[in-house]
Design a protein that fits this description.
The complex is a heterodimer of chains A (748) and B (176). With 748 residues, chain A is α+β, with helices and mostly antiparallel strands. Chain A contains 25 helices and 34 strands. In chain A, the strands form eleven sheets. Chain A has a six-stranded mixed β-sheet, covered by helices on one side. In chain A, strands 12-1-16-26-27 form a five-stranded mixed β-sheet, with helices on one face. In chain B, helix 2 packs antiparallel against helix 7. The N terminus of chain B is likely disordered. Classes of the chains: A alpha+beta (748), B mainly alpha (176).
Chain lengths: 748, 176
């Protein structure tokens, strides 16, 4: 009696609890629809700089098909720069946009005109490319399938191999469990398991992987409960979408549909008999029978499964033999499924998790609008792939790695991310996660701090590039050398920065204070710990490419810092906009100094360490940039920007061994490959309030005049311009000078 | 159409503007703006006084028709009271012309009405930095900065901004 009471007292609450777990989780997971991720929509307008190649690439990525007449939504035709496009209707975050058949006329890299049957159009926004389907809260990539769309042979074959009595059992095999229990008792520990599909599903859904008796008992009860609540078809469908069939980096490959994309690059309905057998065989051990890593074992397993298919009458002997005669038919590279741009999508996930409430992200079927520009992403990927190949051809290590981040200067919208030399590979994403020393890429901040420093410095201020010996806080002695091994004596701030001299920079930085530099990094949103040691001045700071992009966004945008963002809006499946990521400006207080730094960085490209760039680009557009190389040529960095695009590239070895790279010989090459196919708009060098352009003689460090020999126009913060004047200007001053107003109008 | 923001063009516009200002002053016909019909802060403290500060002289760069469409959409959304939507339209306009001072000032005025004074201030400052720093838009920049600073409890800054608004017609823009 007591025993019975105890049983009811403990068993009943336990079963009620298990029941709750089983049903709530199943309901939640069963209908889990992935979120759809969209690229930024392409807005076309007359005057937009866009090559035909870029336009067609955008259409292709957005799934537009070439046709002769463009008579259906989602098709386009073209003839000599004349495009006819039938835009699909699409629900944006600002409402539904109807389909539209329009003409676009492109020539010489510019959209010349747009029109539809009723006349000229000022603006056409295309429906965006769908670039991924994700679960924002877990690192799984799935393509869901409904049971009606699963090939018959997969449904029956799976049962034939894994659970022949699935149709009839109540969730468990009592006899099987008993047999396993006896085997376990004999062995003295839990060694053998016999699982129905239901149990396997339960194990995947609710339980850890440990093999213990209590876990086995829980699993059995939960399986019974699951069968009690749900139809066989519902359970099988959940299983088909849940089962673990492989691993790609940190992402599990779950479900047959996703596995089909991952291994064969196509959907389930395109699979042949042998391929279905291979997938079914993987259930037993996705890693053990991994067809890419263990092809022999996978082949044996596939043939074993084909035998079972034949034995159970699912296929004929002849079909089995024909399937066996074929190789594994696995695609060379794992396709990243519906996530075409894994490095960018990781940034999307990261920003969603940091900026949205978890309960919002639990909503199913979210529509996530991002900033990715398909053509620019494709161009960045091509630049990395072809650039890395060319570096290897030139004798650099063939296993170098690379990362690239491309962003819009003013809005901070991230247009492209590449995290691996094989951009489609969904593994370690260097653009977001590789912390590397940034070397000289940090120097502009040192010079910026100098320019902001109470009227003491301008671009012509003389500093000394001489050996310097400093004691680091740990007691070690530090004597930085220049890249070329020599010291250059007295030179201007501008020369020291454009030629990236270490000794001059350290001397300048020590006058400013290392802590100022660290404070600035923090203020620019860099959370990585930075040691307050002198070597920080030369970039002994480990940052990720995206962090470097964040620092330079602020500079490139003239001190109007914005947070780099990959997500612009998120909508629920019903069309309710959850939250917007509006553009928020965070102006730096000293935009006059930033504007002057911008000019200095254009000089890096014009006559400094990046002077090879214009020839690589084949353009005379004004571009700003900075190279970076770290000790023993471990890291190659290049950060460069035009008026509207900023890109950071990094090249190095994953294990941080010397790679033989410099900023100029590697990262800059990749940068140039990307920008060769992007519109190049010159950097904006208009000065904000508080700074202005004036004529000076840089060698004399004196004010001069346009008409004087050796005069150059340089920007200065008001009050910091040189105090002396050239003899030429002094002579002119004595003459009857024109009134400022007259001169001003005459220059028109 | 390309962006019309280069320094040379900007300079031309300003010269033209100064010339027209001189002409206006000579003719002594710079009439005041009509009285506001609404009692909103954005009108009473920014737009109307700015029109008066600038004596009706406007300096607008050539506009891209797509941008014009967005700014008009934004204005309609603003009048309908949908400030979030207005900001979305202006962001889309900024994607096309990221340094357009008029779009940024319009955004500043939207932020002011939304009560996001910090962003109102920031957009107005940016509009001033990239804009002609003279004329009606200059006055709207400083009026917005003034109102935003006042809301952010920077009374001295607000006062200074009011003075700067008044100077938008008689100072040579710095930086040229």
């Amino acid at each position: 009696m007591l025993l019975a009471g105890l049983m009811v007292g403990t068993l009943l609450p336990w079963i009620i609890w298990l029941n709750h777990v089983v049903t709530s989780e199943f309901e939640c997971r069963k209908w889990d629809l992935p979120s759809r991720v969209f690229a930024r929509p392409l807005s076309l307008y007359p005057g937009l700089q866009m090559s035909a190649q870029a336009f067609e690439s955008e259409l292709m990525v957005a799934g537009y098909l070439y046709s002769d007449s463009a008579s259906d939504p989602g098709t386009f035709s073209s003839s000599g720069g004349q495009y006819q496009v039938y835009r699909r209707s699409f629900r944006f975050d600002d409402g539904i946009q109807a389909g539209l058949r329009f003409r676009a006329n492109l020539s010489n890299g510019v959209v010349r005109s747009l029109s539809d049957e009723s006349g000229a159009l000022d603006l056409v926004r295309l429906d965006p490319a769908e670039i991924a389907s994700i679960f924002p809260l877990h690192d799984e990539d799935r393509t869901l399938v409904s049971i009606e769309d699963v090939p018959e042979l997969l449904l029956t074959g799976l049962q034939a191999v894994e659970d022949r009595n699935f149709k009839n059992h109540p969730g468990i095999h009592l006899r099987g469990i008993f047999r396993a229990l006896m085997a376990n008792i004999r062995a003295g520990k839990a060694v053998q398991g016999s699982s129905t599909l239901t149990q396997q599903l339960v194990k995947n859904y609710y339980l850890s992987n440990e093999r213990t008796l209590p876990r086995k008992i829980n699993e059995a009860f939960m399986s019974l409960l699951l069968e009690l609540h749900y139809e066989k078809a519902e359970i099988l469908e959940a299983y088909l979408n849940e089962v673990h069939l492989g691993q790609q980096g940190s992402h599990g490959i779950h479900g047959f549909s996703r596995a089909s994309e991952f291994y064969f690059g196509g959907s389930l309905d395109q699979l042949g008999t042998g391929q279905i057998a291979l997938l079914v065989g993987l259930v037993r051990g996705a890693s053990l029978y991994n067809p890419r890593r263990n092809p022999d074992r996978a082949l044996a397993r596939r043939n074993q499964v084909l035998d079972i298919f034949t034995l159970t009458g699912l296929i004929s002997k002849r079909e089995s033999d024909s399937a066996k005669s074929k190789p594994l038919e696995v695609s060379q590279k794992p396709r990243t499924g519906r996530s075409r741009y894994p490095a960018f999508v990781e940034l999307v996930r990261r920003q969603l998790r940091s900026d949205y409430r978890e309960e919002d992200l639990r909503n199913e079927g979210l529509r996530i609008f991002t900033t990715l520009a398909p053509f620019e992403q494709e161009a960045a990927e091509r630049a990395v792939v072809s650039g890395m190949k060319s570096l290897a051809d030139r004798g650099l290590p063939a296993d170098l790695q690379s990362a690239m981040v491309l962003a819009d200067v003013a809005s901070g919208e991230v247009r492209a991310v590449v995290g691996d030399r094989s951009p489609g590979r969904d593994g370690f994403n260097r653009a977001l996660n590789a912390r590397r020393q940034i070397g000289s890429v940090i120097k502009p901040l040192v010079y910026l701090l100098a320019l902001e420093h109470d009227a003491d410095y301008n671009l012509l201020t003389r500093i000394m590039d001489e050996p310097i010996t400093l004691k680091q806080p740990d007691g070690s002695i530090w004597s930085p050398a220049n890249y070329d091994g020599t010291s250059h004596g007295e030179l201007s701030l501008l020369e020291a920065l454009t030629r990236s001299y270490n000794q001059a920079t350290v001397r300048l930085g020590m006058n400013i204070g290392v802590h100022q530099l660290i404070a600035r990094l923090e203020q620019l949103g860099i959370n990585a710990p930075v040691d307050p040691v002198p070597s920080t001045l030369l970039g002994a700071v480990e940052l990720t490419p995206i962090e470097v992009a964040q620092i330079y966004q602020s500079i490139a945008a003239g001190g109007y810092t914005v947070r780099l963002r990959a997500v612009t809006a998120v909508q629920t499946a019903e069309g309710e906009t959850l939250n917007r990521y509006p553009l928020r400006l965070m102006p730096q207080p000293r935009r006059d100094a930033v504007a002057i730094l911008n000019y200095a960085l254009t000089q890096v490209v014009e006559k400094g360490t990046a002077r090879a760039l214009p020839a690589l680009l084949g353009s005379d557009a004004v571009i700003a940039g900075k190279t970076g190389t770290t000790n023993e040529r471990r890291d190659s960095w290049f950060v460069g920007y035009t008026r509207d695009r900023l890109a950071v590239t990094w090249v190095g070895q994953d294990d941080n061994t010397p790679a033989g790279v410099t900023g100029g010989n590697a990262a800059m090459q990749l940068w140039a490959r990307l920008f060769r196919v992007l519109p190049l708009k010159s950097v904006d060098l208009d000065m904000p309030e508080g700074a202005y352009w004036t004529w000076v003689d840089p060698t004399l460090n004196a004010l001069s005049d346009e008409s004087c020999d050796g005069a150059e126009q340089l920007p200065f913060i008001e009050g910091t311009e040189p105090r002396s004047v050239t003899p030429c200007l002094a002579r002119l001053d004595r003459d009857d000078r024109k009134s400022i107003w007259r001169k001003w109008f005459e220059r028109n | 159409m390309t962006e019309n923001q280069s320094g040379e063009n900007g300079l031309n516009v300003i010269r033209l503007m100064v010339a027209s200002l001189l002409a206006l002053l000579l003719n002594a016909c710079a009439g005041g703006a009509p009285a506001p019909v609404e009692d909103r802060e954005i009108d009473t403290r920014v737009r109307t006084p700015a029109r008066q500060d600038s004596a009706g002289v406007q300096v607008y760069p050539l506009r891209n028709p797509a941008v014009v469409q967005f700014t008009q959409d934004a204005r309609r959304a603003e009048h309908a009271g949908d400030l979030d939507q207005a900001a979305v339209f202006l962001e889309r306009a900024l994607r096309i012309q990221p340094r357009d001072p008029e779009i940024m000032q319009q955004m500043a005025e939207i932020q002011l009405q939304k009560g996001d004074y910090e962003q109102a201030l920031n957009f107005a400052v940016r509009s001033y930095d990239t804009g002609p720093r003279v004329g009606e838009i200059c006055a709207r920049n400083w009026r917005t900065i003034g109102v935003a600073r006042a809301h952010l409890n920077d009374q001295n800054g607000a006062l200074e901004a009011e003075q700067r608004a008044g100077q938008c017609m008689n100072t040579r823009p710095a930086g040229f």
